[in-house]
């Protein structure tokens, strides 16, 4: 993961933190039980293939202690965390019979979790996921068992093969578990394979320690000073990630407050318009927008009318029709909204561009810049279409809500004029799925029917605007999370 994680990676991190101390889910149980049973079956097979012989108990005990400590030095990643266990795993592999190594690693990882379990920070039931985390041990021990060679007697080629087998087993199980429990794509998981380069580098450091174990057992403790340095780095990195997620939460909190202020400032109560944001995000998801564009769409939908705060209340809440001068003043709210968000800074500047453009028209007849077609930001085109649908489908002081079919007909008739035809088509699918009974609509993209009236909420009745109050997620809690777990 880069020093500055992408929006998608930040979302994945937040999901990992939320799951860390949550009860194990049904999806996780259905995925982890087969993984756990497969692990124990593999251990049994290796045990039968290469029954364990005697070993130095004291050396093994020190290696187990180091493994438990190493598993507590964690670096958070979008799909869980990576620990510095490779420094302890390689000596452990040299100290124990290969058939015993997987169980020894499992015991060490479970023991390392005892403090969190006793303090209530971690549900004991999540220990099931720890079994799956030990699958990385199966690859190398299988290689040595099949080759009938003890790791300490293996040549460079066999050691390299064992390392590659370790990475292959870990990646295969991780890919399966995250695809099943979190819907993670193969591409997203491939982006995290950089961790194997770190493990390979740590293996090079650990090999001399492992080679000295049989003559100098105390060498098993050699990685401990390095763990101290890694623990400090991990803590600093964790704090930086937490600050980043908290900043995102603060942005959302600010947006919610501004949305509430705008809604309270409007004499028309918009309680029934709560679904505007959800509809907007549903369209964005249907279009397959990336994480960054979804975030900008979310904030743009919430704050598209924040510039109304700069317009006098008597104009905003005027019960009658606005005169030309008042109408021109109302139209400045898009520019005023952009100015407000520019002052916030950061990604809000991009949201400001969306806010500025949400009253542009596909045919170029909108404001404030007269943009047309794809020159209008996609997020602004989505918001314009969804906001107009909501305006038609809700009761107003000056008219009743339009029936579903009539509102959809108006939307279609303005396709290619006021609205992006593709957005109209996608929105039609979204609202058709939500309708009861379901309505199937084919959108005519050429806008053959003449528009009877503007669908813009402000152009239909200037000064009467609605605002959507989203249910945004709270900031994620922070707790320990198992290696590469959901």
Structural class: mainly alpha
Largest sheet: 2 strands, antiparallel
Mean pLDDT: 78
> Span from first to last CA?
16 Å
* Strand line-up in the sheet with most strands: 1-2
Shape call = elongated
Proportion of residues in extended strands:
under 5%
How large is the radius of gyration?
Answer: 30 Å
**Helix fraction?**
55-70%
Give the number of helices: 22
Number of domains: 2
Task: Count every beta strand, where a strand is a DSSP E run of 2 or more residues.
Answer: 2
Low-confidence stretches: 267-273, 436-486
Helix/strand order, N-terminal first: HHHEEHHHHHHHHHHHHHHHHHHH
Q: How would you describe this structure to a colleague?
A:
The protein has two domains: 232 residues, no CATH class; 206 residues, Hypothetical protein af1432 (Orthogonal Bundle). It has 22 helices and two strands. The protein is mostly helical. The relative contact order is 0.12. The chain is 60% helix and 2% strand. The two termini are 16 Å apart. It is elongated, with a radius of gyration of 30 Å. A two-stranded antiparallel sheet has the order 1-2.
């Amino acid at each position: 993961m880069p020093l500055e994680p992408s929006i998608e990676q930040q979302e994945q991190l937040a999901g990992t933190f939320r799951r860390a101390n949550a009860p194990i889910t049904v999806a996780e149980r259905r995925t982890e039980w087969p993984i756990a049973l497969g692990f124990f079956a593999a251990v049994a097979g290796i045990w039968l293939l290469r029954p364990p012989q005697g070993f130095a108990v004291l050396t093994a005990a020190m290696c187990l202690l180091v493994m438990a400590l190493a598993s507590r030095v964690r670096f958070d990643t979008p799909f869980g965390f990576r620990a510095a266990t490779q420094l302890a795993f390689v000596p452990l592999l040299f100290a124990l019979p290969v058939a015993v190594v997987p169980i020894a690693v499992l015991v060490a990882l479970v023991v390392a979790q005892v403090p969190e379990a006793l303090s209530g920070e971690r549900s004991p039931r999540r220990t099931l996921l720890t079994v799956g985390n030990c699958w990385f041990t199966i690859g190398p021990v299988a290689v040595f068992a099949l080759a009938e060679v003890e790791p300490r007697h293996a040549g460079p080629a066999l050691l390299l093969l064992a390392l590659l087998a370790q990475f292959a087993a870990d990646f295969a199980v991780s890919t399966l578990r995250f695809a099943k429990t979190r819907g993670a794509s193969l591409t997203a998981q491939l982006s995290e394979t950089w961790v194997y380069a770190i493990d390979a580098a740590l293996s090079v450091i650990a090999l001399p320690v492992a080679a000295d174990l049989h003559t100098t057992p105390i060498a098993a403790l050699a990685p401990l000073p390095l763990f101290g340095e890694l623990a400090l780095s991990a803590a600093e990195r964790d704090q930086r990630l937490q600050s980043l997620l908290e900043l995102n939460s603060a942005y959302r909190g600010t947006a919610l407050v501004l949305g509430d202020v705008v809604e309270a400032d409007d004499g028309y109560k918009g309680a029934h318009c709560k679904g505007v944001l959800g509809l907007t995000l549903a369209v964005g998801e249907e279009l397959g927008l990336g994480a960054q564009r979804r975030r900008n769409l979310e904030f743009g939908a919430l704050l598209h009318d924040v510039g109304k705060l700069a317009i006098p209340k008597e104009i905003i809440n005027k019960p009658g029709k606005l005169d030309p001068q008042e109408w021109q003043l109302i139209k400045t709210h898009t520019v005023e909204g952009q100015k407000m968000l520019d002052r916030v800074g950061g990604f809000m500047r991009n949201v400001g561009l969306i806010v500025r453009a949400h009253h542009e028209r596909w045919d170029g007849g909108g404001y404030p810049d007269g943009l047309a077609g794809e020159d209008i930001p996609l997020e602004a085109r989505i918001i314009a279409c969804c906001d107009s649908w909501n305006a038609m489908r809700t009761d107003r002081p000056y008219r009743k809500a339009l029936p579903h079919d009539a509102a959809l007909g108006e939307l279609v008739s303005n396709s290619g004029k006021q609205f992006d035809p593709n957005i109209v088509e996608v929105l039609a699918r979204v609202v058709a799925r939500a309708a009861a009974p379901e309505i199937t609509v084919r959108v005519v993209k050429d806008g053959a029917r003449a528009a009877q009236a503007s669908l813009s909420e402000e152009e239909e009745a200037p000064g009467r605007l609605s605002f959507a109050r989203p249910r945004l997620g709270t900031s994620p809690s922070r707790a320990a999370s198992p290696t590469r777990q959901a």
